[in-house]
Structure to design on (137 residues):
């Protein structure tokens, strides 16, 4: 069984999945956020195909730890997910995940449009790796 992470965005939602040992996060893809029913169908397929036991959704927080408008959108998103999918949903602090993903992609030699196409899944992988590291200790 694996853990799947979602990096919620208004245009695209990044997806990453753990290995079976729940030690390493791997970027999978990004799914268009609209139309939302299509996103939900693709998510259900991924949950089934990857044998997912838990979905971790990035919760945006301000640098001082408070929650803003983006967090309210993610809370609404999580509510719908809980009504739609059959696996537990949990949120996880996603501060700076996109920055870390961009830095890693630049260091890996990805630039421009190539990086933009993959940044959402890479941010989901950074988010998931943080979660995996926290449960390993």
């Amino acid at each position: 069984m694996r853990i799947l992470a979602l990096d919620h965005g208004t245009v695209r939602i990044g997806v990453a999945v753990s290995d079976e040992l729940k030690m390493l996060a791997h970027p999978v893809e990004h799914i268009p956020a609209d139309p939302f029913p299509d996103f939900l169908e693709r998510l259900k397929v991924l949950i089934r195909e990857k044998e997912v036991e838990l979905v971790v959704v990035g919760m945006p927080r301000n640098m001082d730890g408070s929650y803003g408008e983006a967090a309210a959108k993610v809370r609404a998103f999580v509510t719908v997910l809980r009504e739609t999918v059959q696996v537990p949903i949990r949120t996880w602090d996603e501060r700076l995940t996109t920055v870390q993903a961009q830095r890693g992609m630049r260091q890996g030699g990805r630039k421009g449009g190539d990086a933009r196409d993959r940044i959402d899944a890479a941010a989901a992988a950074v988010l998931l790796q943080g979660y995996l590291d926290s449960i390993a200790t």
Q: What stands out?
A: The two ends are 19 Å apart (CA to CA). The chain has a mean pLDDT of 88. Residues 112-136 form the longest helix (25 residues).
